[in-house]
Amino acid sequence: MAEIRQKPQIVSEATEAQIAVHWREEEYYYPSAKFIGQANLTDPDVIERFSEKNFPECFREYADLLSWDKYWDTTLDTSDPPFWKWFVGGKINASYNCVDRHLANYKNKAALIFVPEPESEAPVAVTYRELYVRVNEFAALLRDFCGLKAGDRVTIHMPMVPELPITMLACARLGVVHSVVFGGFSGEACGTRAADSQSQVLITMDGYYRYGKLLDHKAGADIALEIAKKEGQTVDKVLVWRRHAGQNASATPFVKGRDFFVDEVLTKYKGQLVAPVPMDAEAPLFLMYTSGSTGKPKGCQHRTGGYLAYVTGTSKYIQDIHPEDVYWCMADIGWITGHSYIVYGPLALAATSVMYEGVPTYPDAGRVWRIAERLDVNIFHTSPTAIRMLRKSGHDEPDKYNYHFKHMTTVGEPIEPEVWRWYHETVGKGEAVIVDTWWQTENGGFLCSTKPALDPMKPGSAGPGMPGIYPVIIDENNQEVAAGSGKAGNICIRNPWPGIMQTIWGSHDRFVAQYYAKYCKNRNSKDWRDWPYFAADGAVLAADGYFRILGRVDDVINVAGHRLGTKEIESACLTVSEVAEAAVVPVADEIKGRVPEVYIALKPGVQPSQAIIDKVNKVIETMIGKIARPKHVHIVPDMPKTRSGKLMRRVLAALSNNMNTGDITTLANPDVVENIRELVQGKEAVALTDGPEDLKRFGTEE
Ligand code: WT7
Q1: Helices within 333-462 (DSSP H only)
Q2: CA-CA distance, 124 to 111, in Å (whole number)?
Q3: What is the secondary structure of 152-187 as a DSSP string?
Q4: What is the position in ligand 1's atom list of the atom closest to the CA of 410?
Q5: Is residue 163 within 8 Å of residue 244, measured between CB atoms?
Q6: What spacing in Å lies between the alpha carbon of 500 and ligand 1's midpoint?
Q7: Ligand 1: which atom is nearest the Cα of residue 448?
Q8: What's the 438 CA to ligand 1 centre distance in angstroms?
Q9: Omega within 30 of 0 (cis) for the link into 604
Q10: What is the rounded CA–CA span in Å between residue 34 and residue 231?
């Protein structure tokens, strides 16, 4: 098997050093007087106002930032735990709140600024008035051409162009539930999600730019429809936006009567207005699919009123967005960060929200800072992976540009204090305040963060629970872990909040099992105090009340701040005919945090070959997307197993990360471990460590 052995994975010194640093208590950094002087949230009484004795009514403060068609009667209804209901009896429209209501004061102000990837194409500003016109026209098309009405689901598979938020807001105007699938996901991944949500309409785009190339994106639509059909769902209309007027970036032929260019159909709806439909606060606004512990992604269903209130409140107080700010969140709208903090939160506050089409380091490491300088961005929001990448490719690059951020966000993964300091000193020029916001797709908005003008920052720690959020760490024996004990455990949220998802689309039991079963104190109780929300993240709580997030405790891998289920990748591998067994484990990566690594065992009589490895790589890319590409694919003679035949992913994760494998004497085949070790690490003995918490825990619950 030696001939197909791949380069051994070596956890670099830098990563090890960063892990070590991560465990030290860090010093505080303080916001500047200048920042505090202009901040939205400077009243320390907020803690008292959002304390448990004022719960749940405290969240009226967020809901009151919105314009309601009908005010609600009950702030929180707990009659059917854990299916909490917020602002019950209220009626509201999200599109009205993000568009129409700003016309009086801000119609000529830019709502969106689109920055195309090619620098030869100038940025495009869409004013609130223009957004209003375009959302209305497209809503008319959705209603009259597609026959869509409140409650119907629509799948949107689009890149980062203004037509994406326009599409979402047009859906919201009608009460149509949008399900945006990240544009980088494959056509197949889009198809399974379209089927799960029973979408009859798919909205896509002909193409978009990435790394300087105009990609054919519409090709994925044909695959998506084929897959959806196999799963029993017929999508009968495909609407295709064009990247360039009058051109077609896709070579894929149109299917007559099924595929339509949006601009051609839109000519019939020019200037039309569609009254925003007053929706129940509890009506679903959108679905967002995310990976979990099974092979099938789950559709997180978010409500209209509570979600919008929560993202608006947190955008105002934690992102510190004022209408005069130029705010740039580098996430993709195809993830929850983009929904909450590019589209709904900022637009509800009449901000100017920047969207960038392409790769942050294209055509060079200065691109991001050129955009910031040109548009005079003053609030910047990105992930540790992007920060690590920008630091590596252009350590001093920010110094060359004349931009000034007042506020910066990091989200999606734990950030190493070293990297945090570069973000603060070099990117933020020592001026900007930083918030490290911890939350998840399921949560709608931030759960832990410092309050930017009120709390000091601590590199590597997200900070305390947000106003009205009461987090706690619980250990495996159901005991609360005390602050300052230094002990890690599972971070949970004791209370419901308006941004929490309603359920998993079509799977209420899974919703309860996944998030509430583990620590529920009494299944019959209607008291929210008996239903802590289990986040599936490990964390430590310092004596000062700051939470440091350690990473996932389940079989989800956080790749560059995006979630991938190991089971999803394993299912893809098993479709390769030569593969008998597959195991996917996380491996530490200096830039992306964690990446998947694949182990496969072949069917009897099949010889290992590079061709099989290529097939495995290919199938992962077509079934999920490039984002799931494994670091290595190892062909092993056998999988490490217990005597009862359980595959020990924990042992493989240890081998991939040069960690101690722990006790393996109880395995049915302990000898195979040495065999695999040599395959992965090489013949020479390598230095072993205990590894970080998430890798140590990986696979231990199997
Ligand atoms: C997982 C959720 C909604 C944010 C984007 C990702 C990790 C998120 C942080 C942070 C450390 C973080 C957690 C979480 N995570 N933010 N500030 N520090 N880890 O959303 O795809 O649903 O992933 O991202 O592990 O469970 P997601």
Answers
A1: 336-338, 345-348, 367-375, 384-393, 417-422
A2: 11
A3: -EEEEEE-SSTHHHHHHHHHHHHTPEEEEEETTB-H
A4: 17
A5: no
A6: 15
A7: 17
A8: 6
A9: no
A10: 57
- In terms of Cα–Cα distance, which of 222, 212, 162 is closest to 186? 222
The residue whose CB lies within 8 Å of the most ligand 1 atoms, and thus the one to mutate among 549, 554, 559, is 549
Please report, for residues 94, 239, 342, the alpha-carbon distance to residue 173 in angstroms, rounded to integers and kept in the order given.
7, 18, 18
Q: Tell me the CA–centroid distance for residue 576 and ligand 1, in Å.
A: 31
CA of 411 to the centre of ligand 1 (A): 7
Terminal-to-terminal C-alpha distance of the chain: 29
Rounded to the nearest 5 degrees, what angle is found at the Cα of 689, between the Cα atoms of 685 and 693?
145
CA atoms 416, 420, 421, 427: torsion sign: positive
pLDDT tens digits, one per residue of 413-443: 999 999 999 999 999 999 999 999 999 999 9
Tokens in use for 540?
A: 């430590």
Q: What is the phi-psi region of residue 406: left when phi exceeds 0, alpha when psi lies from -120 to 50, beta otherwise?
A: alpha
Interval between CA 615 and ligand 1 midpoint (Å): 31
In 23-158, where does DSSP find H-type helix? 33-38, 46-49, 60-63, 94-98, 103-106, 128-144
- Which of 330, 339, 438 is the best mutation target for the ligand 1 pocket, counting ligand atoms within 8 Å of the beta carbon and taking the most? 438
Q: CB within 6 Å of ligand 1 — which residues?
A: 290, 336-337, 411-414, 436-441, 462, 537, 549, 551-552, 558, 561-563
Q: Cα 378 from chain centroid?
A: 23
Nearest alpha-carbon partner for 128 in 166, 175, 174, 168: 166
pLDDT digits (tens, 9 = 90+) for 343-361: 999 999 999 999 999 999 9
Residue position matching structure tokens 């089971």 = 567
Distance from the alpha carbon of residue 78 to the mean position of ligand 1, in angstroms: 27
Q: Report the DSSP beta bridge partners of residue 448.
A: 438, 465
Q: How far is CA 698 from the centre of its chain?
A: 21
Q: How far apart are CA 204 and CA 259, in angstroms?
A: 10
The one-letter code for the residue type at 650 is R
Lowest mean pLDDT among 122-126, 293-297, 403-407: 293-297
Rounded CA separation 157/220 (Å): 9
> What is the rounded CA–CA span in Å between residue 550 and residue 22?
10
pLDDT, tens digit (0-9, with 9 covering 90-100), for 311-348: 999 999 999 999 999 999 999 999 999 999 999 999 99
- C-beta of residue 204 within 8 angstroms of C-beta of residue 221: yes
